[in-house]
């Protein structure tokens, strides 16, 4: 499992796809984030703390509600399960005791599903929560890994799989790590783990380690994104892009190149229509 | 004035404090050690109207599973495969926290997806074994699980009940005539289902930084995180489900994986004994 | 409390440690230890001071406290804040006012300077008021009042000269909390620049609402638009924008 294999589209087996994010795109939402990993993209919106329906009201804390929507198809059990997983990861870190009898609503809209969609959704939600100014006790980041088998029967681990890789995998894993714990100690910090398919112990441990180092890159990206958010006014939305460093073979924060979108003149004429 | 409160009152008003008196001693209010699961009771074939059934009790938590078999036309994409339709319900009678059927919709969906993923994605059952006639008739198994009492750890009880029920399913011998009508052969044999492997679960929770095995509902509510590990009798990991909560270290995870692995043999034996007893 | 001073004016993420509680046993240090005051965005978790929002760590020399500066749209009530509110309904002896928080605020019917049971403003649902927050607790409904605060000149509500009270005519725009704070900053040139072009009256609420009024309603529209656009522009852009907007006037 330690050999690095070249995949379709030129990635190595332990490399993440390039990451892109935009904050504050929705006018009405308190916080919003569009997060893209490769072609998989998700738009997350946060509303709250705001009014809550009496049946959901909790006397001592805010009620966290998650809605997960796909582009097509009727919402079914998988979507409910995804809502459950996302809510279970976010509710403990949101400081809900500060806002009793209110609701914090997190809406996840899948724009394009090209694999690892639950990880992409969770990362988008974390960015949206910070954009909304909802107090959270730590930053969490998520990465998925798949195990594929080739004709010889040997197993390969693929970090951040795309849809075609997921479809041919024999086992899938989804992990969420606490960014601070991982940055400080380099180990532990496992917040969420969901697996499917049959995995050997060594396969699971490899996925865990690979995802943990991948989550460090996502954590660094999140930090860079929020650094660019202006503190005084809502400046024009900036497109922050992390490009995969083709030459490098490892995945850690330093291997990404930051690319700010070309600075188009952020003048008045770009922002509204000219008066007649 | 000194108020003397009974243990029950403290348990209601300050449940975390109540538990903190027990945990440092390595014991829980119900007398168990921190790493001891509750007594598992498995009984098979309790529902005579169903083709397969099982009742599983983990302490007070009880789950009953009934499997009914019907004949249907297979899907175009998989003409040789039977189908499995799973439904898990937590009715209002199982817990005071569930007052209406709609309160438990999210939990039901979550349990259904978890169990279905284990059954289908790890290939527990060969769906080809349910084929009657290629492209025209297959068996569909309607697997219904009802949690009769929810005292923590419904998932373990539900999964074990499904596995036991699957092992005692008796499908009658059928034949298909020219008009594509399927009828039961009089005096024919019965077909049982072979499971490729037995995924055995064990759930854990972390309460006040201490690891508890097989938590009760009270312990689940007070815990900072809950998770379930499923290993099969071949030592393969079928599922590790930790949706969220406080982060844990790798060594705790390893300890839990080992505990789950050590228990698989015992549970598979219990299941086999239950099926023998039914005969 | 040991604060990491190198982090001041840098961007922090939730969970970043700002300082740790230092347990000092020697008596000589006790006299030297000054209490550390913290403001929004920072909280004490298990003996460490951590950031809970994404923003820049600042130290305010005036109030001598550390806080996290960030921009958000959702207003959370705090005592002393001046807010622009909309009356929702009359409930007994109070008005229920929408100030943008999850729960509506209560305003006593006689909570106006010089008001008594018989002499009080007649407010209907939809009317605007400028008030200050008196009670802001997470477990209670917020309470506001239009009585002038201590130290400010007290003018009866009837005269229309009071600082707090009903706001007649005009228009309210929603903006982010950061924008409100920027407008209330004495160094902010925006109101002066707009004032050079036309005369107006404004009330800035810390709840992300700004009330504008002017004699000519076209001016009200122009000023509201100017404030909306200035949220997204830098100083150069604002100048250009104002010139273009008021050119036709």
Explain what you see.
Helices cover 26% and strands 29% of the residues of chain A. Chain A has 276 residues and is an alpha+beta fold. In chain A, strand 2 (31-37) and strand 3 form a beta hairpin. Chain A starts with 18 loop residues before the first strand and ends in a 5-residue tail after the last helix. Chain B has 279 residues and is of the alpha+beta class. Chain B has a domain at 28-197 and 264-278: Ribosomal Protein S5, domain 2 (2-Layer Sandwich). In chain B, strands 1, 2, 3, 4, 5 and 6 form a 6-stranded mixed sheet that branches. A 4-stranded antiparallel sheet of chain B has the order 12-11-13-14. In chain B, a hairpin with a 2-residue loop joins strand 2 and strand 3 (61-72). The longest helix of chain B is centred in the C-terminal third of the chain and has 29 residues, at 250-278. Chain C has 5 helices and 17 strands. In chain C, strands 9-10-11-13-12 form a 5-stranded mixed barrel. In chain C, strands 1-3-6-5 form a 4-stranded antiparallel sheet, with no helix packed on it. A 4-stranded mixed sheet of chain C has the order 2-7-8-4, with no helix packed on it. Chain C is globular. The termini of chain C are far apart. The interface between A and C is large, with 46 and 43 residues. Strand 9 of chain A pairs antiparallel with strand 14 of chain B, so a sheet runs across the interface. Chain A: It holds the Pfam family RNase_PH. Chain A: Belongs to the RNase PH family. Chain A: Residues 250-276 are annotated as: Disordered.
